Amino acid sequence: MDLFHATSTTNHGTPKQSPTAPLAVRMRPQSAEEVAGQHHLLTPGSPLRRLLEPHTATTRTAPSSIILWGPPGTGKTTLAYLIAHSSDRHFTELSAVTAGVKDIRTVVDSARQLLVTNGQETVLFIDEVHRFSKSQQDALLPSVENRWVTLIAATTENPSFSVISPLLSRSLLLTLRSLTDDDITALLTRALADERGLAGTVTLHPDAQSTLVRLAQGDARKALTILEAAASSATATATTPNAPATITTDVLEQAIDIATVSYDKDGDQHYDVTSAFIKSMRGSDVDAALHYLARMLVAGEDPRFIARRIVISASEDVGMADPSALQTATAAAQAVQLLGLPEARYALAQAVVHIATAPKSNKSHDAINAAISDIQAGRTGQVPPHLRDSHYSGAQRLGHGAAYQYAHDYPHAVAPQHYLPEELQGTRYYHPTDRGFERNVTQRLEIIRTILPNNNA
After folding, report:
1. 73 occurs within a structural domain
2. Is the pLDDT confidence value at 262 over 60?
3. pLDDT given for residue 126 in this prediction
């Protein structure tokens, strides 16, 4: 579930709040004005704003299907409740973790009956829609196309990868952003004072507030959950009766263990952090590369996956500028197999430092891709006769191997003969740089290409 999920609702989507409900539930926004952040989606006249307005004939132009994509604690569930509460729409909620195709069809049938009998529309909210299989998502298409329901689907994963194309093309995709520090601060201030929240029974020390905002990492639910735990600890240890207890940094640290890293190794953050990791090594920012390595390790990423990315980077981004980088990377991959975590993190860190600080060249990468492009385009040609296998019966009669020049019999161990097929004579795939060890390769290659015929262009 997402931000401030309530366990039960009325038909109009208003949560039945209880004084004993979690603070995050009690502080659920009751209007669009109370929604923290997401100002880019709530401007007047926007599709989401039209859905949040009182339901009239003019709002029929609002979309019939919306996909809310964003990190946890950014308000996806809250917005679904507010949309249902904005009119007499019936509200129904399914969780993709437990619901099946039969559940979807039951909800859709009920929605059609309500629409036919009294004209009442239904808001169908599906949380974690990325967990639905293709067949389950297919079952939603008729209800979306025929407006039997207003579908609101929430996901923390990139819909381009997790939602089927037909459903995605029929939906308005709205991207929610992590809350800013100011958003979280405003949310905490309201929760401390509001009668629905802590009603002034505790105060939050400025240092503790800064720490709490940092730990929340843009997640409103996490911020309020931590605040509630800290408030309980502060109240229990208060020494002055009938006075507001103070949440200090020490109280805050006692109330929580360690903040979970904002990283889902099965979700969109997996791709974002991995991408940043690779690009930081390529960009020679060793500190950033180590930061993203640490994020992956703390989040429980498979160290074998990390090792594979490091090996790829060693060849793709460092290449012949420092050939030993590949040796370090493969040794780190072997260390992962031999040691496992936590000890293998040192080998991974060593490989990351090596690659990030090494001179860079992607010319080997470019060379093989260029050669493959030629092959795929049909530019192959025949192997020159003097290079063909001459060890089988009849090869000599065909002229295979005739006039072959043994390289070690010539200066520099380079024989002045053709190696490429005739159609590709003079083609160059590899263009070394002047960086690192590849500078030596460049100098040697200049000599080699003056010896090989049709290669000194």
Report:
1. yes
2. no
3. 92
